[in-house]
Amino acid sequence: MQWPPLRCALITKGRNKIMTKTFLPSVKEVETTRKWHHIDATGQTLGRLATRVAVLLMGKHKRTYTPHMDCGDFVVVTNTDHIKVTRNKMEEKVYFSHSGYAKGAKETPLKRQFEKDSTKVLELAVKRMLDENRLRAPRLKRLRIYKGEEHEFAGRFAK
User: Fold this and answer.
1) What b-and-e string marks burial along 78-110, b requiring 16 or more CB atoms within 10 Å of the CB?
2) Is residue 159 in some structural domain?
3) CATH number at residue 50
4) What is the number of domains present in the chain?
5) I want to staple 82 with a disulfide (CB 3.0 to 4.6 A). Which of 42, 46, 97, 104 is the partner?
6) pTM for the predicted model, two decimal places
7) For 57-73, what is each residue's pLDDT tens digit?
């Protein structure tokens, strides 16, 4: 059994059963232990890449994951121009937006959005994988997306 336990754990000592308390990391501890992750998007599928990024932003890969705390890491994604999509999604997938006015609906095909700004495609995919709550905005602030190889966070990644 790993220590400290993530949730309430039942520990048996002989015939006695002891309930341990839930381990919750402190906010200070979470803030100081954030890591930086670099992901190269070349040749990766859009949905699978977005899932990996969302898990890192939420902190679900950590032992100390707690749903109501923001314990995720920083993520830098490069080469979004080289993301691939499967089947006919490039022609068939459509992004819908509405201005709020009458006849204000807009539909943008994935192909046009990808040509215009490929970073927006990945950003929307990750954003829609995160829960709609107060933690989504700070999580998305820790996501940095770049079209090419160049970025200013090169020295921050753990080896």
Assistant:
1) bbbeebebeeebeeebeeeeeeeeeeeeeeeeb
2) no
3) 3.90.1180.10
4) 1
5) 42
6) 0.83
7) 999 999 888 899 999 99
